[in-house]
Amino acid sequence: MAYAGDLTPQQAWDLLTSDERALLVDVRTEGEWLQIGVPDASDAGDRAAFVEWLTPAGPNPAFLDQLGLAGLEPGDGRPVVFLCRSGVRSIAAAQAATAAGFGPAYNVLRGFEGDIGPDGQRGHWGWRAEGLPWRQA
């Protein structure tokens, strides 16, 4: 089974603020959280978790266990929205979560800061560029 699909950042925020069961999972690295910032889910009941999909050493072998520690249970039908830098790692995370019975699992298109723009920089698209709540970690 494939993940539930892609959401724009605004659609993801709308789901988080309208469904009290929904959880946002930021799958970037700890370094990214600290250097770039994180989504601020305080207006969505603080339903955000930070679980690295990839660690500096490679794939996170505890990823699925850490989703459980974040309050997710396979088969509970709780919506989970995965976010990364540009929307690539979060697709893989959503697919792995779906295969393990979590979800419905969604991917946030263009992630937190989007792909590299024509000026060679990130930040033109994604969660932050759309003006959604975020903060420095």
Automatic annotation (TrEMBL):
Matching Pfam families: Rhodanese (PF00581)
Classification via InterPro entries? Rhodanese-like_dom, Rhodanese-like_dom_sf
Q: Where is the signal peptide?
A: none
Do you know which Gene3D superfamilies this protein is assigned to?
Answer: Rhodanese-like domain
Stretches assigned to the Rhodanese domain: 18-121
Identification of the protein by name: Rhodanese domain-containing protein
Which organism is this entry from? Cellulomonas gelida
Taxonomic lineage is: Bacteria, Bacillati, Actinomycetota, Actinomycetes, Micrococcales
